[in-house]
Write a structure and sequence with these properties.
The complex is a heterodimer of chains A (579) and B (302).
Chain A lengths: L3 H10 L1 H50 L1 H5 L3 H9 L7 E8 L4 E6 L11 H10 L4 E3 L3 E9 L25 E10 L1 H36 L1 H14 L7 H129 L3 H14 L1 H33 L7 E3 L1 H10 L9 E6 L6 E3 L1 H18 L5 E10 L2 E8 L29 H11 L3 E7 L3 E9 L7
Parallel strand pairs in A: 7-9
Antiparallel strand pairs in A: 1-2, 1-5, 3-4, 4-5, 6-8, 9-10, 10-12, 11-12
Chain B lengths: L1 H19 L2 E6 L4 H16 L6 H4 L3 E6 L6 H10 L4 E5 L1 H10 L4 E7 L2 H4 L5 E5 L6 H9 L5 E6 L1 H14 L4 E6 L5 H8 L6 E3 L9 H14 L3 E3 L11 E4 L2 H16 L10 E2 L4 E4 L1 H7 L9
Parallel strand pairs in B: 1-2, 1-3, 3-4, 4-5, 5-11, 6-7, 6-8, 8-9, 9-10
Antiparallel strand pairs in B: 10-12
Helix pairs in contact in B: 2-11, 4-5, 9-10
Classes of the chains: A alpha+beta (579), B alpha/beta (302).
Chain lengths: 579, 302
Amino acid sequence: MISPSRLIHQIRASYSAKLIVIFIAALFVMATVLNFTFIRLQKNSYRVHMRDSGLAIIRLLATSLQIDLFTENISELQNALEALQDQDNILHVDLLTDKGAILVSRSFDADRQADFPSCETLFKDIRLGSSFFREWPDSFTFWWPVLAIPEHSSEDALYFEEDTEAGDTTPSVLGYVTMVISKDQYKEEIRQIFIRTGLIILPILILLITGVSLLFRRLTQPLQSLIAKIRQERNIGEIHDDIGLLDTTVTTLVEDLDRSFQTINELTSGLEDQVAERTRQLGQANKKLTTRQEYLEEANKKLEKAMKELKEAEGQLIQSEKMAAIGQVVAGVAHEINNNINFISGALPSLDRAMADVSRLMEKFKAACTEPTDANLTEARALQKELEEDELFDSLGLLMDNIREGVNRTTRIIADLQTFSRADEQGYKTVDLHKAINSTITFLDKDPLHHIEIIKAYGELPLVSCRPDRINQVFLNIMNNALHAMATQGGTLTITTSVKDSMVHIRFGDTGTGINKETLPRIFDPFFTSKDIGEGSGIGLAISYKIIQQHGGRIEVTSDEGKGSSFEVILPVVRQDEG
Amino acid sequence: MIKRVCLLILFLLQTTSSAQAYEIVAVKSSAAEPYTLALQAFQQHFKKLSPSRGLKSIQADTVQVITLQKKESATEISQKIRAAKPDLIVAFGSKAFYHAASTYKNIAIIYLLVPSPEAVAQHSQATGVLLQPKAGVEFQALAQIFPAGRRIGVIYDPAKSADLISTTMAANRDLSFVLRPVSQAQEVAGQLATLADEVDLIWMLPDSTSLSPQAEKSYYLFSLRHKIPLLAFSEKYLTRGASFAVSLDLAGMGRWAAKLARQIQNGTKASAIKPVQIDQVALRRNKLIINKLGLVLQETSK
């Protein structure tokens, strides 16, 4: 059993116990205040109820007594008051004239005359006219005027309902009814309210206190554990209360923290020097970086310039490649035309001679005709015989045929040249690729052609939508490469055409030197060439590849070193943007 | 030509109508229902009595209605009536009759629903329909349904109702009237108490002393306590506690007023026309009260 002083000491020492005590005290105060407020409200409410019911009774009484008070029928008035005897609360009723004189007075509890005011006191209140209700220590008093019914405004009103409005007439007062109601029931009700609210609030309070105590204990459990731990670790007995203990602990911790900060500060000052040194180093590094950046920018500019120059060079190379191709074509054309001109120029001296013989013969026969002498005729016939007239005309025909052949061949070359170049036609056309290949063959490098056979294994090809000048350039390039590959040992260039899945396949297969495996992946790289310096620019195949790509096609290459290569140009029959 | 003829006809109509139109002003004492019903009956019947030929059939006489308001002063009422420029005034109720008589002395006035016209105003050109039926006719009607009512108790103020009592008694000599004179309303209850075992019926008179609002309740209490029926002169009392009441024939009064108006319009002087007095009345009864009083009525009666 703990003694009260010991209990107080323990409560003072325990922080949670203090909190619980304060909270319980606050709950008590709150419950008491609430209880009294509630009782006060109930009291007021019941008082209002008493007033309203009292006023209702007295108003009814005033109305019911109207005729008897008007006629001052005392016996009827007394009878009316007797009816109130059964009402427990009513202590006394007075009926007064309008001047305040008592007409009838009836007390229902003679012993309690002293509990309510006299009739004179009441009439003073009535004269004041402010209210119809007054509360005394042991009773409530009520009063109400008995009003006379207003007289008819005219004789017509005897016959018909009057059209009256509120406030039309002020009724006269016949008298007053006063009533005293005991407060016993009111007091009893208030007492009951006290008891009832007490009975309701007390268990609630107990429950609340119990609940709150448990809750507090649970909430302060971590704190208690902490305090216990501190006590255990710091070996502080029961000298301090909880707050004191925490205070001491916190003070110690703060001091430790101060010391720690001091150490940190000391370390920090050394660190600052390091930081300054590092900053200096970083500054230097930064400076170097800036210099390097400037150098890089400079290099970048140079590179850009070089790139520009390279592009210009590339453009020049492309131009020179074009020029080379044109040169080759021109050389081919010149060669062909020269051959054909040989036909004509070779025939011309013989033709001149034959024409001179014919002219001479014509002169002789003309003279024989002008002077038809035997001598002239003989001379003419002799010349005719000498010249072998038939042979002369045969040779003339032959010469004319040679000339015609030369002209025809030249015409064909020009046509081929037109087909090849199509320089006048911009944009895409539907082209017969066989014609295009044939015309390109005309302009191939003539030197290797002597010991190279071209085999045309054409299949059925539809007209293909393409740019003919570009496509011819590709064919020329591929075929020239093939011829060069076979230039030394000769060989066969086989051109095969076919259609598969709306794609045209033109395969150029040679039996030349072939391409080694290392070189093969790079043959379409710009400026890559396996030829000697000055023989090739190295962009012919790159341009060809690009042209075919622009047409939506591709070039597939297979090669077997020493045996030959195959370039297969694959083109769509209809361009994709057309379809 | 046609235009000219039309204009001439229009001109004639304009001039003749102003000469022939008869302006009747109906003045109501208030907006109370009895005045309105009587006015409606008057208007309907007056219209029926209008000629079916001649110019009057084209432009009928007009009836302007003025309803008096409670808060209007006498001057305002008079101005209102004058503004209507009447050729004939029909006054519904005492107030209307009083103000009409005060406004015009020489214009004919027909009054109806006025309890005591002579007491209200003295006017040389006034005639009308009396509110009081012919003396004693209510008892003749009562005898049809309640023959047991032979002893009639009457509370009256001699100063106000002596004439009515005497004429009624003269007209119903077979009945026994038990008279109780009073000079003020406070006496009514006491006097009624003396009639408890002496009468079969109480006749409520149109007497402002014996039937003051304050005294009125005494009749009902007396009737219920002593199981003696009340005969009232107006239906107003039927719902309050009277057993029988004279039913005022408002439509009939309106019709009579219309006839009088036509007579005056046709040239008869109002002073030459005697006021009309209704000689037949209908009685109405409060079945609830009759049952509570335990009265036995004639089965054939209505």
